[in-house]
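Sat 14:20. Reprocessing the chain from the morning session after the first attempt stalled halfway. Input below, unchanged.
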Amino acid sequence: MTSRGRDPSRWSVHDTRRLVTSIDLDEAAEAALDQHREVSISALLELELVSGRRLTLLDDRGWSSGGPDSIWSHLSLQQLEETARAVVGPDEPPEGRSYEEEAALHWAHLSKIAHRQGVPVQAGELAALPHDVHISPRIRARLTL
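Finished this time. Tokens:
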């Protein structure tokens, strides 16, 4: 495949492969937590192109939760994947706005971020892409303790 550079006229939706959310321990928050009862995880949402290049769409998301002792033994890969997709996905709508309206605003915002990085993908095209979750080795190690 030839390089398309930043010329938007040379990009198409076929150049996008998938969305990838990568999650890892949030080191800054982890230091203040009771690591046996609390977890704090950061999430990074990227758009992956067929070339393998990734564009950052969101880098300010994550979550914390608390629970019983040995909290990691109560978490599963499936739970983490579902939560990761939720925290980078459309937010719950405020009063007076439907979920569909909130989702449309979310995908339009992500589309603008991709456009600023030279990839003009439409909001609906982003929403339709496969969305994979990459769980860091550090999190996987905690799940197996």
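Residues 14-90+129-143 form one domain.
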